[in-house]
Amino acid sequence: MAIKSTKGTLRVYLYIPNIIGYMRILMNCVAFARCFSDKKLFAALYFISFLCDGLDGWFARKFNQVSTFGAVLDMVTDRVSTACLLVILSQFYSPGLIFLSLLALDIASHWLQMYSTFLAGKANHKDVKDSSNWLFKAYYGNRLFMGYCCVASEVFVNTVKKTPLLSFPAVLVIIGWAIKQTVNVIQMKTAADVCVLYDINRNQRP
Question: What's the confidence (pLDDT) of residue 181?
Fold first, then answer.
């Protein structure tokens, strides 16, 4: 039985989407290690890692290799890479507190969402079908919409000082970035409510 368990565990670790996740971690490590000395290499590796963020989910669904470990690996990689990027940007642009505030919002909202997901007995933090907020449901329910917001957010923080704010592409980017930050706020509040309701229900049990 122990041998079967070990083989099963190893098989999950070697799922194609999880291997992509390991490659993303490696690329991010190299990217951030060289971010000050080789900005072009940093931009290239970060961009490839960002594209792979969409590929791992596609492979997971395509080959029926969806796993809790893969979902957690994906979220942790996303949060760490975003955190590192925002910390670096806070050193380049003023006021740096803006980027650090975005970092705090990103981590808090996703941590609360992940924790509330398990309290609610759900397998995926993107399962928000029972939410009453239309924007929250649209964000996680439509992959193209979520993809647009994520791409816009990444483009915005990387080109915030370089793109004319009144150009049409810039407007599209700003709208997508603003929607993602709004969703983060909604996500944080919704997840916090789930945690509070869990405590209330637990305390009311005989």
Answer: 96
Print burial letters for 37-75: b (CB count within 10 Å at least 16), e (below 16). eeeeebeebbeebbebbeebbebbeeeebebeebbebbb
Q: How far is the first Cα of the chain from the last one, in angstroms, to the nearest whole number?
A: 39
**Model confidence band, residue 38 (pLDDT cutoffs 50, 70, 90):** very high
Locate tokens 């945690």: which residue?
A: 195
Query: pLDDT tens, 183-205?
Result: 999 999 999 999 999 999 888 87
Tokens at residue 67, please? 């796993």
Q: What is the CA radius of gyration of the chain?
A: 19
Contacts 24+ apart (CB under 8 A), 74-82: 74/17, 74/21, 75/110, 75/114, 75/125, 77/21, 77/24, 77/25, 77/28, 77/53, 78/53, 79/106, 79/107, 79/110, 80/28, 81/24, 81/28, 81/46, 81/49, 82/106
Q: For residue 56, what are the CA distances in angstroms to 12, 62, 85, 109, 146?
A: 14, 10, 21, 22, 15
Q: Is a pLDDT exceeding 50 seen at residue 103?
A: yes
pTM score over 0.70: yes
- Residues recognised as catalytic: 78
**pLDDT at position 126 over 80:** yes
